[in-house]
DNA sequence: CTAGGGTTAG
């Protein structure tokens, strides 16, 4: 090993580096370019180094070498101002200095961190000119930039063009698909990878399992889990954590607990947080609070996400006292509450019908309330039919310039429930004049490995007529059980019969009807919805679970609802 | 003079 390397290795603090520099200066060694480069690199990259100091040395060099530029760009790329790496790279280009594969690699890393797609494309064209196309590592970096900046099509075509790929290349694209809302593509690629005889590693399965979580694809999730066990990848904490998340989000929180309890590696903070969040999603509040206590006993310090998870669990289970107690305990454990934590408290009060307390709490907060907070209060006002509070929350939302469809719908529903049609009309006019954004609601169900997606009033499915007939059958049966459509959930001022029709064909009902048609009597049905479940659907699904004797689980935006024998696991409290 | 760079959960 070179002389300078052995000395740098012995440095364990920044002052050691300075001592070394002084030594080099007094002995004349600092004039050796290789030494200078090493020193800059070490200062720029090492955790005990100092990027500003590296830059000071660098700026004093008259004609820095490519390696020295690289060291600075690399340091900047991983600093909290990665855009400076791009600026530095541009300066280097102006100096007409030779850039090598590493220069490109580091600056591309910076591009991915600041989502600079345009700059990445420029560098892409440059590295084609430089002749770095055969470099697998560099191509993979480039692929990753495209994926992270959301240009998945470019990432995919780069992947297809690469004659040489290694496991990291596959991983980059699988992870890219998984994180870029294309989980189905991620899973397909994972399958192709196995068909081609490649061996997915722990990083690959992280992407694949995350894709399963998003899709609620339990069958495929179990298959990947089996692979993880075959290859002994479950000694990795991250893999275990993503397995816990996958089972939770696929509706099997018991299996998530099994994975959590039987981990042979030591649990990380994320393990605890994921498990608590999983319990929260399933409404297992007491269990979540117990786990939170256990976590403290085991010596893992909670962070902001831990509190968010356990507060969320209290919310979903209606544990108002526990939630408030936990929120108050945050200060003592040194975790500063963020706006999201304040939000859960508003939710806690709101769900319990304590609207005045919720309002008081918002008014006394040390930070400015955000849109989500007022939406929470508005939602609670809707649930409890409190017109005055709903108006207060809506006013705040309008002042903040909210143009989210849901806000208007909620207020409109509050009026509709009181049959105040003039006010409903006023809200509708406001919606039209403000060009509000509508987030389309959709639900999906997986049948024999094929995902079927439905929107409200969907007639695009090849079997739509059969599905609608099934729904008509359902409605005629459930009427016998005293079902009356909860028409207050409908926005428009229309006749009662039309109102019922508007509810009949909600996406979650269509998906469940399709599930009833396509699956064997008595087998469970699982549906995933992108928004919160509608109140009328909630009532209807409860009755379906009883008269068709099916266990139905619906994962909505926030949590699971498990319907069985006419009851829902959320206890109608959500 | 050499090597160094890529994929990673809540």
TrEMBL record:
Keyword GTP-binding: no
InterPro entries: DYW_dom (IPR032867), E_motif (IPR046848), PPR_At4g14850-like_plant (IPR046960), PPR_rpt (IPR002885), TPR-like_helical_dom_sf (IPR011990)
GO biological processes: RNA modification
DYW domain: residues covered: 482-574
PPR repeats: 166-200, 236-266, 268-302, 303-337
UniProt xrefs under PROSITE patterns: PPR
Protein name: DYW domain-containing protein
Organism this protein belongs to: Kingdonia uniflora
